[in-house]
Amino acid sequence: MAGDVYHEINLSLQIPDLWSVGLITGPSGSGKTTVARELFPKFTYHEKFKWESSCLLDDFSADIDCKQITKILSSVGFSSPPKWLLPYDYLSNGQKFRCDLARVLLSEDNFIYDEFTSFVDRQVAKITCAAVRKCIDKSHKRCARLVAVSCHNDIIEWLEPDWVLDLTDGSFKSGRLWRRPQIKIDVRKASSSEWRLFAQHHYLSRDIARSATCFVGEINSEPVAFCSYIHFPHPKSKNLKQEHRLVVLPDYQGVGIGNRLSECVGDIVRGAGFRFMSTTSAPSVIAHRKRSDKWRVTRSGRVSANSKTAIRGIVKSSNRLTVGFEYVG
Hints:
This protein is of the alpha/beta class. The protein is built from 10 helices and 13 strands. Helix 6 (122-138) links the parallel strand 3 and strand 4 (145-150).
């Protein structure tokens, strides 16, 4: 059947010369894997990796710099340093899927990924697809190509493929015809007790100030992000509020939810007549804020080895870059 479909649609004449993400979809048993291998015989077929170390970072190739590994993990939406230090088997299915993707992206230029999103929650699958598309678009590997093979077609708009082959009816479409749906986040005021759900994912501390004003972002009534602020004591200015905690649950990272929640809280603070300040060392947050006209850089530097914040956290992080911002709206 697979060969018949291949010859019938004559894909060699239809796949565009320039593409980075393709999707082959169809029900189980329709020949998706066979077609993928026949169409792209020189592509690497993704097999299950061996994850054996007590720290998942150690399972990546020794030839790859740790900075590259953490950057790609963050790019595919797994930006939780405390979780990077755990064994692979301790992660959720969504986190495992992103680790596998990161490892493939670092090791191969062109690859076929079978059973794509098959073993993760469907909402998580959609968010992950959006993060993967964003990651590949920004990749330094301009020639990188992913052929995703999946029995799920609910990911098409979220993955935004350059072409889709549907073996349900043999149809083929190309041209980046799909656009990711908007992600609706409902923001509500929260109690500090709700921090418990997010605490383990913060890169420095599980503590929260008693005086913190807290907010939770929800998708379909499910909490996915947390942001809080505290009063910032200053000898001259009495109207400063400081962002205190900002965390997005790992399965929802990589699509900008944290940035949007932070800016929503910034609007609330400014609307109440205060200035909203924030200091961060998260590379993705720093990059976003430097590009945005909603933020102004107030300071930039590195944490010294003797700094309290360099040694008190879950992850020792001396010499990490920190940047201070003011939200200007």
